[in-house]
From TrEMBL, chains A, B:
Source species of the chain: Cupriavidus basilensis
Family: Belongs to the peptidase M20 family.
Amino-acid positions noted as binding Zn(2+) 1 in the UniProt annotation, renumbered to this chain: H68, D79, H178
Signal peptide location: none
Annotated GO MF terms: beta-ureidopropionase activity; hydrolase activity, acting on carbon-nitrogen (but not peptide) bonds, in linear amidines; metal ion binding
Pfam families associated with the record: M20_dimer, Peptidase_M20
Stored InterPro entries: Amidase_Cbmase (IPR010158), Bact_exopeptidase_dim_dom (IPR036264), Peptidase_M20 (IPR002933), Peptidase_M20_dimer (IPR011650)
Peptidase M20 dimerisation domain span: 200-298
Protein name: Beta-ureidopropionase
UniProt keyword annotations, A-Z: Hydrolase, Metal-binding, Zinc
Essential cofactor(s): Zn(2+)
Amino acid sequence: MDLAQIGATPKGGVCRIALTELDRQGRDLVVGWCRAAGLDVRTDEVGNVFARRAGSDPHAAAVATGSHIDTQPSGGKFDGNFGVLAGLEVMRTLNDLGIVTRAPLELAFWTNEEGTRFTPVMMGSGAFAGVFEAEFIRAQRDLDGISVGEALEQIGYRGEQPVGEVPGGMFAAYFEAHIEQGPVLEAAGLPIGVVSGALGQQWYDVTVTGMDAHAGPTPLALRHDAMLAAARMIDEVNRIAVEEAPHGRGTVGYVQVTPNSRNVIPGRVDFSVDLRNLSQAGLDRMDAAMRASFAQIAQRGAVQVSIIQVVKFEPCVFAPACVDSVRRAAAALGLPHMDVVSGAGHDAVYVAQRAPTGMIFVPCKDGISHNELEDALPEHIEAGANVLLQAMLEHAR
Amino acid sequence: MDLAQIGATPKGGVCRIALTELDRQGRDLVVGWCRAAGLDVRTDEVGNVFARRAGSDPHAAAVATGSHIDTQPSGGKFDGNFGVLAGLEVMRTLNDLGIVTRAPLELAFWTNEEGTRFTPVMMGSGAFAGVFEAEFIRAQRDLDGISVGEALEQIGYRGEQPVGEVPGGMFAAYFEAHIEQGPVLEAAGLPIGVVSGALGQQWYDVTVTGMDAHAGPTPLALRHDAMLAAARMIDEVNRIAVEEAPHGRGTVGYVQVTPNSRNVIPGRVDFSVDLRNLSQAGLDRMDAAMRASFAQIAQRGAVQVSIIQVVKFEPCVFAPACVDSVRRAAAALGLPHMDVVSGAGHDAVYVAQRAPTGMIFVPCKDGISHNELEDALPEHIEAGANVLLQAMLEHAR
């Protein structure tokens, strides 16, 4: 709640966009808390921050946690921020109890997870994973022409540590606690989701081209109605996802109609398709089914269709050793839980390319996120932090 | 082609919007041609212009023809203009042949058929029919705040004749020649369409309300996807129209998605529905089927739907005596023809409320209208004018 004061919005949310002056204030506050907890703080060349609690074995690789503290423009208090502060609470709790772990513990917060001001999203963890070069990231510019490198200098978070390097070697394990950002746990009435992986994503730009014509004088049989064909395709996107239950997702979120006049048969419709599934084989099935179905609809409707894939995230299966630790921790604490998958991307999905990784979800109110109404119950927040503590200890002891 | 020079566009079309300086130039040119043909020209208080060729019987009601010379912003040479100039050619032909008819003949061009600058559309003929009061029409304002009354003064076409009054009594018959503005005659390979009536129209604003949610974390079963429901409704609009073959039309030309972001399940979709049919009973069936279907789709998709009717034009059946005259004229001239209905509104549909009315359609290239590409073949134009001549003579002799 203290961190949420920085960039607080009138409706109870937070606007603290990556690499702004408010982000600097938020980073300074969290870094101050880390130092007060006796942690050793480092920053890498893309602004990722790492705070380490020493272990007893000088040769052991760190057991890490983290998330992000940047927000959407009309974001909430919990997205990302919960994971970072849960990690800090783990450190403080161990301090309070005088426990020294064998392996060092490390808390990270990653630069620009949200991708609001600078693209790509999940920039810091992506660079850490080696998906993006540091120089590529530092050269990205916002709408005012300011680069990530310049913004890092301005807020004092251009670090010296080469991105991807970890003192003592790559993390032995990485755990990220996060609000679910969806309705599954709340609907099930459970405080803990054991995240087994993250859905792969394939996004497409689809264009249906027919011919503009007057709605009145043009009989149905002589039409080339791009909207009618697009409507049938949108229904098919849903059907294709339903056939891939329970992990298939198919969404059309963007539709643009041309000329978009009430008495003109649309000559062109552009729309997006977002397909998700837990396996690449599943995504491949959905892709093939979509292409076949769209071609058939286009032929029936006497229109043309083009399909261009524009975004691709591979499906991610988290390390069984880490997923099992989360499940055991919840069980040991007597917390009701279920296995879930993440439908969205998270920093953990990139970190999983470098280190064994697991995630812990807690419910959020009405499944709402990326919204000032985002909220979570204190008992769920506490439960998630306790599971994080136990899972990290299992690997660090 | 001379008239089309006034407001000619680089792509071969015409932009001559009602009550502008260009409209004045077009009106002046046509009025000049009428006077040169010996016609007596009058203007009414909403700017409708009437040009009369005297008959031999001073007590006979006039047999009239007409259309409009205003255009869409990116309009063509033929829409409306063909009907006015075909009427002028009828007068000139009778002059050339020295024929004096029993009844007077009258050529009208109606103010602001297109409704581009001022609403409502078909303003002049609507006022003539008594659907709109003259003072209501004269008070309508464009986006710059200029009223129809002021614009009429500016271009010198505020006449003295009370709207709806006709010297010698209401027209004995009214015929309007027009390009089809659709693809039916071209597809059938016929030069003449005998127009039996015009489809009634009912337009609706539909709003589907669901709930915005992340496309990734929200399983299909927990969604309130306004776009998916809207897509199914759009498909139903088509199905409902197909069931009313051959005269049913159903079109969704306008769709607005909110928030319209590719990875957000749409929480709201607004769209238009345009239903047309030749009978009110048919329109009533379509309305009922649409409401039942939309309610079912909304329930299945866990969304709300609201349907508001915003526009209504009654179906119009033209006078059998006039329709038969057009059919006989085409047959007598050896011109292949078919009965058609008008899917769109025309000045003739309003005039039909006051006088027995018929229409003659000729094909236009690719069915295209309201477009600079609008075109028609000289032999079809000639055929249409000849049918108009014969149909008028049958009533005026």
